[in-house]
Amino acid sequence: xxxxxxxxxxxxxxxxxxxxxxxxxxxxxxxxxxxxxxxxxxxxxxxxxxxxxxxxxxxxxxxxxxxxxxxxxxxxxxxxxxxxxxxxxxxxxxxxxxxxxxxxxxxxxxxxxxxxxxxxxxxxxxxxxxxxx
Length: 133
Known about the structure:
The protein contains six helices and no strands. By secondary structure, the protein is mainly α. Helix 1 packs antiparallel against helix 2, helix 1 packs antiparallel against helix 6 and helix 2 runs parallel beside helix 6. It is globular and about 45 Å long. The two termini are 13 Å apart.
């Protein structure tokens, strides 16, 4: 399952890069969140942790950090921060903001997409190193 989650995360990153090239900033953020979620769930599975059925797995990473090698744990704070930040953007980047009646494509700019994609690539890289793929 860990390898399957990681493969899926990498496939979603390909979609995110394509969306970035087309300037669809809100969907880049959404796909980045999905990739981060799956990559981190792959890491948790690798560590033998039952994967929580939530989109932000930051708490599970912290709770089980002793199961990961030091090289992976060195980046744990960033993994958790990325998971939390993108987890908060999951619905908004897809559905928009009901309170302000703003469509999702009006809520994100290129910089938002750049950061989300960079963070997702970082997380996927380190999860791949952990799993050995």
